[in-house]
């Protein structure tokens, strides 16, 4: 793993020395172990239940729709003690995920989408609360390192979680994956309950309850020039990847492999993401957030190209390259956002960032699902590549910013 300075590279991640960060990382491991296994399994499950690429693609749509709730979720994270919110969120996910055990056929397909929607909404709660906790826990010079570590964990588990999920699904069926995921969230709740920060509610805005309070996170995202430019670049680049979500199963068909093969290809992306996560703190510190985000988006675009050629080998190579680019882009965006945002706005700004990135991706996925009925999937791939490259070009316009917001604290 890398740290945010050359000295940190030699000694390991500088964030690791922050009180409570190892516990936060352990909770992140538990959460993501189940997370990566579940949503891919659900997409494959729906594909096999219905035989429909579109029905399976709408699993990813359901994952993205909670973006419309993110401003309210962010405001909740800026009002409640964030540690308590994380615990309650993980506890609530246990019965939600276990309700998937009631699905026995296409008649319960609505329940699958409903659970995926709630499961995704809970992810926004985690992201909003955790953003404030990270900012309170880490100094400015530790932020890139901490985000790099968490991104490495997140993406590194893609190496094992989909394989575990796929193996359990093939061997024991969907119920085994469902129970594993619920257990992971229960463990995460226990771990985060002991975090040393986040026990008090953030200082509230004077305009409590007003529309201005609700949209304050969006205002913060678009206030500093550097943050505004990278936000737009991320919205364009990650929004375009909504087309890639839709073409996954047609691309696998063109490769003449079973849909379950996604459980093998995604760990390849995870291997690239581990490398990207290891490099991200150093890249962001040396290059600045703008150029780092541009590099990450460029790698995502390059990695998308091989899916147009119907080769599983090229597809795997593309997934690896995309994997490198994703954490570099995310760490650059997250670090700049956390660094320039006051503590009282961390939840709302984090939620707003998720809206700006995920809502366009969801809308593009919906449009792509319709286009997939009338155009060849390769057309969607080339459209995605062009848009992601446009996002990379946009990120290069961000000015390097060294000023920081108010010091973190609870």
Automatic annotation (TrEMBL):
<keyword id="KW-1003">Cell membrane</keyword>
<dbReference type="GO" id="GO:0005886">
    <property type="term" value="C:plasma membrane"/>
</dbReference>
<feature type="transmembrane region" description="Helical">
    <location>
        <begin position="260"/>
        <end position="281"/>
    </location>
</feature>
<feature type="transmembrane region" description="Helical">
    <location>
        <begin position="352"/>
        <end position="373"/>
    </location>
</feature>
<keyword id="KW-0812">Transmembrane</keyword>
<feature type="transmembrane region" description="Helical">
    <location>
        <begin position="110"/>
        <end position="134"/>
    </location>
</feature>
<feature type="transmembrane region" description="Helical">
    <location>
        <begin position="54"/>
        <end position="73"/>
    </location>
</feature>
<protein>
    <submittedName>
        <fullName>Enterobactin exporter EntS</fullName>
    </submittedName>
</protein>
<feature type="transmembrane region" description="Helical">
    <location>
        <begin position="229"/>
        <end position="248"/>
    </location>
</feature>
<feature type="transmembrane region" description="Helical">
    <location>
        <begin position="21"/>
        <end position="42"/>
    </location>
</feature>
<dbReference type="Pfam" id="PF07690">
    <property type="entry name" value="MFS_1"/>
</dbReference>
<feature type="transmembrane region" description="Helical">
    <location>
        <begin position="379"/>
        <end position="396"/>
    </location>
</feature>
<feature type="transmembrane region" description="Helical">
    <location>
        <begin position="85"/>
        <end position="104"/>
    </location>
</feature>
<feature type="transmembrane region" description="Helical">
    <location>
        <begin position="293"/>
        <end position="314"/>
    </location>
</feature>
<keyword id="KW-0472">Membrane</keyword>
<dbReference type="InterPro" id="IPR036259">
    <property type="entry name" value="MFS_trans_sf"/>
</dbReference>
<feature type="transmembrane region" description="Helical">
    <location>
        <begin position="178"/>
        <end position="201"/>
    </location>
</feature>
<keyword id="KW-1133">Transmembrane helix</keyword>
<dbReference type="InterPro" id="IPR011701">
    <property type="entry name" value="MFS"/>
</dbReference>
<dbReference type="GO" id="GO:0022857">
    <property type="term" value="F:transmembrane transporter activity"/>
</dbReference>
């Amino acid at each position: 793993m890398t740290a945010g300075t050359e000295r940190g590279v030699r000694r390991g991640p500088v964030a690791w020395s922050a009180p409570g960060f190892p516990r936060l990382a352990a909770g992140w491991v538990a959460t993501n172990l189940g997370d990566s296994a579940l949503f891919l399994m659900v997409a494959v499950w729906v594909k096999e239940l219905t035989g429909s690429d579109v029905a399976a693609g709408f699993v990813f749509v359901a994952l993205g729709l909670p973006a419309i709730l993110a401003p309210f979720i962010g405001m909740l994270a800026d009002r409640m003690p964030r540690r308590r919110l994380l615990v309650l969120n993980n506890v609530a996910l246990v019965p939600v995920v276990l309700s998937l055990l009631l699905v026995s056929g296409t008649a319960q397909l609505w329940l699958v989408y409903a659970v995926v929607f709630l499961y995704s909404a809970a992810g926004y709660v985690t992201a909003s609360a955790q953003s404030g906790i990270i900012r309170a826990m880490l100094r400015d010079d530790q932020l890139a390192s901490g985000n790099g570590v968490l991104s490495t964990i997140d993406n590194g588990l893609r190496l094992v979680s989909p394989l575990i999920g796929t193996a359990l699904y093939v061997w024991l069926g969907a119920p085994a994956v469902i129970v594993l995921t619920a257990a992971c969230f229960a463990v995460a709740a226990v771990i985060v309950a002991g975090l040393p920060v986040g026990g008090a509610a953030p200082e509230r805005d004077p305009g409590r309850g007003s529309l201005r309070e609700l949209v304050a996170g969006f205002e913060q995202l678009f206030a500093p020039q550097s943050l505004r430019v990278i936000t737009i670049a991320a919205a364009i680049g990650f929004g375009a990847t909504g087309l890639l979500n839709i073409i996954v199963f047609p691309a696998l068909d063109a490769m003449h492999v079973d849909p379950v093969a996604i459980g093998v290809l995604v760990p390849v992306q995870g291997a690239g993401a581990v490398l990207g996560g290891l490099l991200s703190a150093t890249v962001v510190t040396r290059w600045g957030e703008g150029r780092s985000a541009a590099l990450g988006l460029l790698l995502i675009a390059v990695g998308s190209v091989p899916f147009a050629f119907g080769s599983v080998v090229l597809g795997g190579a593309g997934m690896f390259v995309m994997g490198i680019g994703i954490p570099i882009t995310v760490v650059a965006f997250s670090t700049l956002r956390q660094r320039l945002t006051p503590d009282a706005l961390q939840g709302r700004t984090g939620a707003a960032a998720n809206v700006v990135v995920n809502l366009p991706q969801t809308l593009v996925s919906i449009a792509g699902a319709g286009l997939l009925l009338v155009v060849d999937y390769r057309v969607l791939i080339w459209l995605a590549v062009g848009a992601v490259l446009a996002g990379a070009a946009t990120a290069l316009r961000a000015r390097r910013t060294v000023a920081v917001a108010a010091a973190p604290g609870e």
